[in-house]
Amino acid sequence: MVRHMTQPWMWVDSTEVCDAVCTDIERSRCVALDTEYDSFRYFHGKLCLVQLSTEDMTYLFDPFECASYLPPLKKYFSDDGIQTVLHAGDNDVRLLHRDYGFTFNNVFDTHRAAEVLGCPRLALATVIETYLGVSVPKPKKLQRSCWDCRPLSNEQISYAVSDTRYLIELSRRLRAELRQENREEEAQHAFRLVAEARWQPKRFDARGYLRVKGINRLDKEGRERLSRLYAWRFRHAEQTNRALFMILSDTEMIDLSEKPVDSVAAMRERGLLSEKKMASIGADVVAAMKSGSES
C-alpha cells in the first residue's frame, strides 16, 4: 500500500540515534538513499545533506555539523545482503565514495529501471506518479536552493525527505515489471554501472579560453592576456573550491584582457571589477595577466 501521509524523519545528531539507524537498517535489509549537493557554486562539488529511508523512517545526516555519524553506514552499503535504492544515483555514489570511501555492492536504481522499461520521462516525481499514482511536488527553486546554508528551511527538509520516502516501494513495483518483461539482467548491468561511478577531478583545457564569449573583441596581445587569466582562474577556483564564475565571469575576463592592466588602481579607474573583488584578488589578477606565473 502506498503511504500518502508524511513519513516521519529525524536528524542523526547523536550516538544514540546513529545506533538506532544501524539497528533499523539491519532489520530492514533495504535502504533508500539520496544526497543534496552543490555543484553550481563549488568547483569540486560539495556534499550538503544525506537522506536515508527505511520502511518507516527517514534519517537526515548533516555532513557539516555531524559528519562523524556517516562512516558507520559504510559497512551496510558494501553488504550484498542489504539493498541500496537510489534514483539516478551516479553522483550520490561518486560523492560518498570520494568523501567517505563508501562502496556499493547491491544497488537498485529506479531511474535506470524505469529507463529499461521504456518510461519516457524519468524525473523522480514523474516515475513515482507513473508507477505508484502519487503526486510528489518537486519545485525547481528548492532543488537549486542553497543546500550549504544552515539552518535548512522547513521547505528544504520536506523536499529532501520526499526524495527517499517512496523509493523502496517504487523499487518493488519496478522490479516486478522488470521480471514480467524479462529485463532484469539488462537492469542489473545498468545498476552495476551506477555502483561503479567514481568522482573525477576537473581537467584544465589549455585551449578553453578560445571558447570564451567575446574573444573576437581581443587582439593578439589581448588573447594572450585572456589565456593567462583563464589559467589563473582555473587554478584559483580549484584551490579555493569556488565555482569559476564566482572567481571571474567570462565578461569580466574579456573586459580585463582588452587592454593592459598594470595595477589595481588602473583596474579601479576603468571600473573592471567590484571593490570586493579588487580587494580579494585584484593583485593576483594583475600578476596573472602580466606573467602567467603562479599566484
Task: Describe this entry's structure for a reader.
- By secondary structure, the protein is α/β, with parallel strands linked by helices.
- The protein has two domains: 9-195, Ribonuclease H-like superfamily/Ribonuclease H (Nucleotidyltransferase, domain 5), CATH 3.30.420.10; 208-291, HRDC domain (DNA polymerase, domain 1).
- The protein has helices spanning 15-28, 74-77, 90-100, 110-116, 124-132, 140-143, 154-165, 167-180, 184-195, 220-240, 244-247, 250-258, 264-269, 275-291, and strands at 9-11, 30-38, 46-53, 58-61, 83-86, 107-109.
- Strands 1-4-3-2-5-6 form a six-stranded mixed sheet.
- A hairpin with a 7-residue loop joins strand 2 (30-38) and strand 3 (46-53).
- The longest helix has 21 residues, at 220-240.
- It starts with 8 loop residues before the first strand and ends with a helix.
In short:
This protein has 295 residues and is of the alpha/beta class. The protein folds into 2 domains: 187 residues, Ribonuclease H-like superfamily/Ribonuclease H (Nucleotidyltransferase, domain 5, 2-Layer Sandwich), CATH 3.30.420.10; 84 residues, DNA polymerase, domain 1. It has 14 helices and 6 strands.
As for the number of domains, it is 2
CATH architecture level-2 label of the largest domain: 2-Layer Sandwich
Order of helices and strands: EHEEEHEHEHHHHHHHHHHH
Secondary-structure content class: alpha/beta
Per CATH, the class of the largest domain reads: Alpha Beta
Helix content: 40-55%
Characterize the overall form.
Answer: elongated
**Share in β-strands:** 5-15%
Measured on Cα atoms, how large is the radius of gyration? 24 Å
What is the number of beta strands?
6
The overall average pLDDT, rounded, is: 95
Biggest sheet details: 6 strands, mixed
Q: Helical segment tally? A: 14
Low-confidence stretches: 1-5
CATH superfamily of the largest domain: Ribonuclease H-like superfamily/Ribonuclease H
